[in-house]
Amino acid sequence: MTSLDKNQIKNKNHYEDLYSDFSIKSILWKLNNLESYLDDAIATDTSWNALYQKDLRNRLKGKKVLEMGCGDCTNAAIMSALGAEVYANDIADASGLIINKLNEQYNFRFPIKFIKGDFLKNDLKAKQFDFVIGKAFLHHLTIPIEKKFLQETAKLLKKDGEARFFEPAVNNKFLDFIRWYIPVPGRPSKFRKNSFKEWKLKDPHPDRSFSSNHWELVGREFFKQVEIITIGSLERFSRIIKKKENKWKFRRWAFKSEKKLPKTINRSFSRSQLIIYKNPI
Ligand SMILES: C[S@@+](CC[C@H](N)C(=O)[O-])C[C@H]1O[C@@H](n2cnc3c(N)ncnc32)[C@H](O)[C@@H]1O
Questions:
Q1: If you take atom 11 of ligand 1, which residue's CA is the nearest one?
Q2: Domain Methyltransferase spans what residues (predicted)?
Q3: DSSP strand E in the chain: where?
Q4: Which helix (H) or strand (E) holds 130?
Q5: Is the beta carbon of 4 within 6 A of some atom in ligand 1?
């Protein structure tokens, strides 16, 4: 029997709180405007642009999908509205309450099934999923727990199934060093020692590697095919553009243009990555 470690308990408490009393109004709007919402999100938002690479949008219909760390359940709902049979887990039970509300208020072809509690205790049958998805999920796990989740992913995927994880990318030591000194909404600069310390105590991210090398190496333990698509080497500059309209215009251009840059530049300067694992061992 597994029991939750300190980091898992911290994540659970943080997200139970964040998603309590969550209104599904904005998710319902997205579902009711599915095609135009996805067109826009994929063109301008890093997580959607990354996760939906290689036409995922048109490959989900009729497929059995498991989402780990479903959070506010927006992506689980979108995949379900695109015709997938979705199973979703989150360590926060609050996500299950969001799914209940979604199933009540939207007519999905297959209602979303919530798997409550510690996913590592699941009793799901092996080799049954076409896709296993995680959106900003793996980097919330410590490395030993991540290994167990990836082992489980390899077990649950069909032979020709595919796992996709959208995660941050930290491949450049210098950029990583300076990023802690630049404040972002919700995170003070490291120059402000006390506020930074206070923030760190509450932060649900464990100290661990977010590098592409790490996810390549750990992936090869469980999968024959590992692919990393790095994203954001140009898009990262959108943060200095103040006017919203110009920001979105720049991001549309950046996502297209950075594809033309050499792989080594993209890898070093990217902010995010899509990790694709296939062919479970
Ligand atoms: C950054 S949020 C991402 C949520 C959602 N996927 C999204 O894209 O908005 C990370 C999620 O992972 C969940 N999580 C963290 N550790 C977990 C664990 N051990 N098992 C399941 N879920 C976990 C958190 O509760 C949280 O909902």
A1: 69
A2: 65-161
A3: 64-68, 85-90, 113-116, 129-135, 157-168, 223-231, 272-280
A4: strand 129-135
A5: no
**Among the atoms of ligand 1, which is closest to the Cα of residue 141?**
16
| Rounded distance from Cα 260 to ligand 1 centre (Å) | 32
Q: What is the pLDDT of residues 86-122, one digit of tens each?
A: 999 999 999 999 999 999 999 999 999 999 999 999 9
Extract the residue ranges of the chain whose pLDDT is less than 50: 1
Q: Are strands 272-280 and 157-168 parallel, antiparallel or unpaired?
A: antiparallel
pLDDT digits (tens, 9 = 90+) for 185-225: 889 999 999 999 999 888 889 999 999 999 999 999 999 99
Domain residue ranges in the chain? 6-280
Report angle CA 170, 134, 143 to the nearest 5 degrees.
Answer: 55
* Residue 167 backbone phi and psi in degrees, to 5: -140, 165
Which run of H or E residues covers position 178?
helix 173-179
Q: Other CB atoms closer than 10 Å to residue 217's CB: what's the count?
A: 12
